[in-house]
Amino acid sequence: MKTRGFEIISMYRAVGIHLPERKTGASTGYDFAAAEEVVIPPGDGALIPTGVKAYMQPDEVLLIYIRSSAALKKHLMLMNSVGVIDADYYGNAENEGHIYIPLYNYGKEPVRIAAGERIAQGIFTHYLTVDGDTAGSGAVRAGGFGSTGS
Questions:
Q1: What's the pLDDT tens digit per position in 39-48?
Q2: pLDDT single digits (tens) 49-77
Q3: Burial level of 6, CB count in 10 A (0-12/13-18/19+)?
Q4: Angular region, 136: left φ>0, alpha ψ -120 to 50, beta rest
Q5: N or C: the chain end with fewer CB closer than 10 Å?
Q6: In CATH, what number is assigned to the domain containing residue 106?
């Protein structure tokens, strides 16, 4: 039985995408890379495709953070501060659970993100719910960004 991990989404299987990985034994985060080149104009944002989806247990979440080098050297930040990938995002009908990294360029020059460039890191963790929580009783995720609030 699979407990947690990453897979390449179907449209990127022939492209040579690398699955996120930790670089050292003490690293907390799994590095995510851009699946294709994207240029972000100054004062603007873009959704960077990773070509990757994540599977996990129902009581887990994958939190996405900017890599410090992208923030310091390229003047980039996550548009939503911290990305939250829910367990039921995996395999959804709209986009297979494709993880996009929403980056904002707060610098004065365009920023080029190369295909294969590491831009963010993901950390799996457990979460808790309150007594009497009945969320999700039969509800099925239909999409991506903001879809749980619809």
A1: 999 999 999 9
A2: 999 999 999 999 999 999 998 889 999 99
A3: buried
A4: left
A5: N
A6: 2.70.40.10
